[in-house]
Queue: 2 jobs
Job 1
Amino acid sequence: MENFDVIVVGGGPAGLSAALSAAKAGMKTVVIERGDYPGTKNVMGGVLYTKATEAVVPDFWQSAPLERPVIEQRYGFLSGDETILAGYRDPVWAQAPYNAHTVLRVKFDRWLAQQAEKAGVMIITETVVEDLLYKGDNVVGVRTGRAEGDLGAKVVILAEGVNAFIAKKAGLAPQMRPDTVAVAVKEIIQLPQEKLEDRFCLEPGQGATIELFGDSTQGMMGTAFIYTNKDSLSIGVGALLEPLIRTKWTPNDLLEALKAKPYVKRLIQGGETKEYLAHLIPEGGYNAMPKLHRQGVLVVGDTAMLVNGLNREGSNLAMTSGKMAGEVAAQCIQSGDLSDQGMSLYEQRMRDSFVVKDLYKFRRLGRFFETHPHFLKVYPEIAANAMHLYFTADETSKKERQKQIMKMVFEKRAKGGLVSDVFGAWRAIL
Ligand code: FAD
């Protein structure tokens, strides 16, 4: 049996970041990936954040296959055929060190794997890890689906993404329930560069993102997104499994309904669908996070439920957790302390980082939207009606208009409800 210092299960951003940092610390490291190459199985919207990425590969923007630097972020609500939008554009984000880029994971993950290989990581593809190997209670390696496929290791890092089969077997399972997992579908729609830049008012090479709530998910807890790539748009929608099951909407029907909305239709008009992808997103947040370590094992990225859905962040949490896990694995191997206690250094570092702090901050959010569904349905409707009334110029005086708006608001949501909603939202978000 071949032996390594560190075995990483899964070649996504979390696993490859873990492998890179372990190898940089001098560890003999291998990544085992079930796909033909890293990236083939992976799906993201996908906005890649600079800070977390450059911590793993400094100056990555000089060689990574990036689509466009994001200079504008728009947020909006759809209510029926109406659209309410707000956004922020900052041309500074078009230059190094940037804030974020759009990427296509099939290209980006493959490139990241090449950086890991340059740092000395061995990458074994087309191989599924089936279980951990134990000596007594101690984890001593992994069993793969290949003949004579056992590999030994001092530390195993579980970066297998949302399904977390091995983590579940190891008793490090995140709480996967219909209310902690979202299903997302996405299309890549090809469009000529100039057309794309015209439609989004962008200078050549610049990019924009749009996040849409409300009727973009038929009022379900979730989001729709449209991101500009070099010569295509990534358009998708994701919603929690629980309301999807309850309402019998399929993710594909949600996407088709989104594409038919007047605002969206115009953006994708004339484009040709090149790819269709689907994936789960772990949305349970802080309350569904598993324990992040045990003797000889660390859990990173989606396997550990590290996704901040509100801020559309997952890849950066994955990379940050991966980097820390690789560093802690090396530290524990060097000190010879692979006990559960020794490995808990990783969880401590994670709790001190923005990753767990952010998840903790928004720990009430999922439950809040569950108990206040009108935030995603009634309030967008109220806002759209109010804007319609306010911006329609006729012979009604503005004072009368304001009265009409207030009447409409209280008809749709009683005063008491409004006050408790504001208080609840304050507690969940601020
Ligand atoms: P993954 O990327 O899922 O990688 C896991 C890897 O493990 C895969 O390569 C898989 O093939 C491999 N694997 C699994 N099991 C085994 C096994 N047993 N043996 C061997 N290999 C195995 N995040 C953002 O930051 N920005 C966004 O815009 C964004 N948009 C998103 C849109 C969608 C539709 C989705 C689904 C997610 C989005 N996310 C976004 C979240 C982000 O994609 C994830 O948080 C991130 O990919 C997690 O990385 P990971 O390495 O933990 O898992």
Note: The chain has a mean pLDDT of 95.
Job 2
Amino acid sequence: MSKFWKPGSERPRATLVDDEEGGVLFFSTPSSEYGRSTLERQKQRLPVYKYRDAILYLVENNPTTIIVGETGSGKTTQIPQYLKEAGWAEGDRVIACTQPRRLSVQSVAARVAEEMGVKLGDEVGYTIRFEDQTNPGTTKIKFLTDGVLLREMMDDPLLTNYSVIMVDEAHERSISTDMLLGLLKKIQRRRPELRLIISSATIEAKSMSNFFQIRKKNRRQEVKDDPGSLKPPAILSVEGKGFPVEIYYLEEPASDYLQSAVSTVLSINDEEPAGDILVFLTGQDDIEAAVQLLADGARDIRGHSSGLLVLPLYSGLPRADQDLVFAPTPKGKRKVIISTNIAETSLTLEGVVYVVDCGFSKQRFYNPISDIESLVVAPISKASARQRTGRAGRVRPGKCFRLYTEEYFVKELPSEGIPEMQRSNLVSCVIQLKALGIDNILGFDWLASPPPEAMVRALEVLYSLGILDEDAKLTSPTGFQVAEIPLEPMIAKMILSADAFGCSEEIITVAAVLSVQSIWVNIRGTQKELDEVKLWFAAAEGDHVSFLNVYKGFLNSGKSSQWCYKNFINYHAMKKVVDVREQLSRLIKRLGIVLKSCERDTQTLRKAVLAGFFAHASCLEEYSQNGMYKTIRSSQEVYIHPSSVLFRVNPKWVIYHSLVSTDKHYMRNVIAIDPSWLTEAAPHFYQLRMPNPALF
Ligand code: CDP
Ligand code: MG
């Protein structure tokens, strides 16, 4: 096991900059008999239960109520039920509860339906992108992502269906949550009877409260709409319950957090009494790798099963695997859940006594100068580290093993994270606000203003895509059509362009594949086999064309799970692709696009992709020995991702779908193009930037 030490014990403590972090976190009242009570009794034991009447009173009497409470106190699952019991869903009114993540939407909806003894999709339902489990006549409590609620505003700008909207997990400050809060504040002026609940696991209540009190002064229109003063939101803090958690730090920094996490889990299993383990890693890839290593490691040591039940948890996980995570731990087993930061506050896992925190999470970062947005594995904030630690103290005193040194925690981790709004590409955000009639986007009532450079970049890209006109208004029909398609604007533009190229059949398949996480099953130790299998499907033109081969193979196999298993293809992802594709085909028909196939004309297909993604072009550096490309737009150094079929093939000119950054910027999902297509598709964008392609 890596060497850990407990602050305040065998080694002198470093001076703590952070005053709350004394090595032991104390929470207040102890929790009770997990697993033995009926659902009803469990409900009554949750900390929010004591506040039921207070919450209902505040919601009745205040337009906005802010509720702060420790993860697991019952905010998400209980408050919507209290509201329903109090009559907020009578008539045709609906109670909405938003979540930043799809997986938590599904999971909490299922739990609430179970608690209420109703079928999921009837009285309690949920909606996430491409999946609607509601029944318009009967659904009273609806869980949905914040992004879906934003989309609903396009059809119903005042969200008239809803009596109460609970914006949950507001501390996460997702880009959609921030947009939603600004828009809901506007809606409230027109619909004073609408009730908002903002719930959060951490105290950012003050800035939220100020936000809802202060009217945007520089817009005359708004002042006129609202002659009265804004009532300050009510704030309620739910007292948490939990046990102390001891924190251990590494004595020396770990060189490989994945290995370190695996060996820590094995040592906990050897040395510590019963209790489930929750490991925080960063994403699907390293989670699956750790699951595999633990399965191998556990067997190697003893030659037989170690009693560990190792389960992954990340968004995009199939439902059956999600259920395993929430099911009670079988007798004699110790559950090890390896999760992204989804288990930090969005989901409560019972039975966790040990937390292993790698200190990183995958975060989106955007640099408006280079116009590069990428997913980066970056250090978490101190606030996140504390949340992770708290997950160990739900059932009894717990331990948290931080895979970093105390000095690193104190000196390197920022105290709070940066809101997503301030580190994202704003293209989708701008388009959505424009579609909702918000023209002055910089003047919008932001909880935290987006960087003006990012805004300018977004406007530039949208203009070059023909989505906005010179006056920064949505173009008709393209701009409005793009806004209707619930995919990133570049994909939406690619779909619309496919009409003219006569390849809409193929393009919606590509769009559907790009919208699921990964269609390949990537198990550590099977990389060679996976690479060999990929060759079967690989097309010289690149990943998008290879996706079409996989899709065809899947259909020809009669959508067989066996076939997927044999070919290292994720069966659930493929089923999702078929489903999303079906929905897209209905959507584009509605937009007046005729489904047409280009058969084997991959040049046409690639041109259609390029019509949406011309801004993501890069060129192989001359004499580059290691496959280095430079983006045309900002001369940024990038490389083809090893998962791409073009990895090591390195065509001269490529278009990529997205960038992931670890040690380098990697282009994911890449196709080869001819540079003349760039100036053909987007002369206004490339004329001034690119030397004559004939010179290359
Ligand atoms: O939202 P908050 O973190 O305050 O708590 P919650 O998600 O409402 O969770 C309250 C209780 O419901 C916890 O004891 C959870 O373990 C339980 N729960 C569950 O068993 N299964 C779920 N899918 C969601 C919650
Ligand atoms: Mg919650």
Note: Residues 10-36, 219-225, 690-696 have pLDDT under 50 and may be disordered.
